[in-house]
Amino acid sequence: MKTLTSNADWLDRTRTALWHPCTQMKQLEATAPLPIARGEGPWLIDYDGRRYLDAISSWWVNLFGHANLRINSAIVDQLSQIEHVILAGCTHAPVIELSERLAQLTGLGHAFYGSDGASATEIALKMSFHYWRNSGLPGKTGFVSLKNGYHGETLGALSVTDVALFKDTYAPLLRQSHQAMSPDWRLAEPGESAETYALRAAADLEVWLVDHADSTAAVIVEPLVQGAAGMAMHHPVYLTRLREVCDRHDVHLIADEIAVGFGRTGTMFACEQGAVLPSPSGRVAGGEGASTNVSAIADFICLSKGITGGYLPLSAVLTTEDVYAAFYDDETARGFLHSHSYTGNPLACRAALAVLDIFGQDNVIEANHARSEQFTTLLAEVRNHPKVRHFRNAGMIWAFDVADAQPGFSQNFHRMALAKGLFIRPIGNTVYFMPPYVIEEPEMRLMANVTLDILQTL
Ligand SMILES: *Cc1c(COP(=O)(O)O)cnc(C)c1O
Predict the structure, then answer these.
(1) Residue nearest ligand 1's atom 10 by CA
(2) Distance, CA of 230 to chain centre
(3) Which of 14, 303, 307, 390 has minimal Cβ neighbours within 10 Å of its Cβ?
(4) Measuring CA to CA, which residue among 207, 236, 263 is closest to residue 438?
(5) How many CB atoms lie within 10 A of CB 171?
(6) Residue-wise DSSP of 190-225
(7) What is the pLDDT of residues 73-101, one digit of tens each?
(8) pLDDT higher than 80, residue 7
């Protein structure tokens, strides 16, 4: 085997051998992908030894840095025991422990596993539909999602996704679904608060449900932050109110926390911020001593991305006792007959358990509050820059829009940042930071300074 030591060695071969995701391959003639040889905490290091700060957590998955010793050792330990076994007819300690701990954390239970975020969306949609069918309401087959929502790109998930560039080409293959008004506070009228706007969006959805609840199985939302829309944020009262609306009209609420789960928005799960606001329904699910936070809002929660700390593909859907009970029967076909080959993979589950251990041992949610404040302070000059609009922050996500952005802005910004050691990928004219939870002041200063520098030259 040829030894390859520099970036250049890899570029022709990747162009020929691969089909890169979310990429027009012809554009790779002009823009080479970054060949990454290794990682170290929040840093990515190429084959020429250059270092780049991973400001987007490798597509929002990495929580505790690359080559994290605690996660590494959990996976290595599991490797010597069992790497994988079929989960139909078998079970194992890592998947049981992970399911128990996720139930404790969410108040929902009966974890059903997939491999990617999109497969979690598919599972939640199918489960909701099948629940109504098992409950004698087979007419409830429709789904509602939000304008500019994103839930993955397999056909079922794409049906509830609303990003034209990903969706329009495949429209003839997709099921119709309804897209409701987004609670994104940037769309508020002048003088209207984020909270008032969120309440208006929830009321608008209710108007639609008044006429369509009989044919609707579930509403699916990205709680607090619509990521792919460009980190569009909304007031948590939207979740509180949406729960009430779903209760009134007998429709499930699916919380897609694939991007926002595991501490991203400042709480372990984003739904918790809607649950602390008073809700008249007083819903309780899960076992003795379970936190009822997520279950006070959602009937289903979809988890993936950060669940393994960005190590291995794993997703999970947790739901209520009520949903589970509707499938529990002597008749096989009333069960949830869905599967993926790598369902409940032990290595991935061990990585996830190590991630939950780190959350506990390092008091991560607390520590991130301080990190979040510190970086927000360091971004003061960026925030006040005349080209910056709608500066926003939720926990460990920061975003702003750039006024009068020229065509190609996102690519140009990406390239300029890369030359200064920062790996960042704006969405349209939105620049966002979603760093791993191991960044310290020097890395924060680098992100703030490089961003300010680039803004000055635009
Ligand atoms: C990334 C994402 C998905 C899809 O996850 P994949 O692992 O990319 O299939 C679904 N929903 C949300 C909110 C996401 O951010």
Answers:
(1) 151
(2) 13
(3) 14
(4) 263
(5) 11
(6) TT--HHHHHHHHHHHHHHHHHHHGGGEEEEEE-SSE
(7) 999 999 999 999 999 999 999 999 999 99
(8) yes
- The CATH 3.40.640.10 portion of the chain extends over 71-362
Cα 354 to averaged position of ligand 1 atoms, centre (Å): 22
Between these two residues, 9 and 264, which has the higher pLDDT value?
264
Ligand 1 pocket residue status of 304, Cβ below 6 Å: yes
The closest residue, in CA terms, to atom 7 on ligand 1 is 117
| Cα distances (angstroms) measured from residue 403 to each of 33, 378, 388, 433 | 28, 21, 6, 18
Four-point Cα dihedral 311, 315, 319, 325, nearest 10: -120
Is ligand 1 within 6 A of the CB of residue 124? no
Residue 287 has pLDDT above 50, yes or no: no
Distance 260 CA to ligand 1 centre (A): 10
Indicate the helix (H) or strand (E) that contains 397: strand 397-402
Q: Whose CA is nearest to atom 6 of ligand 1?
A: 117
- Quick check: 263 and 359 in contact, CB under 8 A? yes
Report yes or no: 303 and 346 within 8 Å, Cβ to Cβ.
no
Architecture of the 71-362 domain = 3-Layer(aba) Sandwich (3.40)
pTM of the model: 0.96
Q: Name the residue among 150, 144, 138 with its Cα closest to residue 302.
A: 150
Q: Which atom of ligand 1 is nearest to the CA of 228?
A: 15
- The rounded percent of the chain whose pLDDT value lies above 90 is 92
Q: Is the CB of 258 within 6 Å of ligand 1? A: yes
The answer to whether the beta carbons of residues 42 and 65 sit under 8 Å apart is: yes
* Domain 7-67+364-457, second-level architecture: Alpha-Beta Complex (3.90)
**Cα(398) to centroid(ligand 1), Å:** 19
Query: Do β-strands 216-221 and 252-256 pair in parallel, antiparallel, or remain unpaired?
Result: parallel
**Residues constituting the chain:** 458
Cβ atoms within 10 A of the Cβ of 407, count? Answer: 7
Residue at 181: amino acid letter: M
- 17 burial via Cβ count (<10 Å: 0-12, 13-18, 19+): exposed
Identify which of 119, 225, 304, 314 to mutate to test ligand 1's pocket (most ligand atoms within 8 A of the CB). 304
pLDDT tens for residues 215-244?
A: 999 999 999 999 999 999 999 999 999 999
**Where does residue 22 fall: left (phi above 0), alpha (psi -120 to 50 degrees), or beta otherwise?**
left
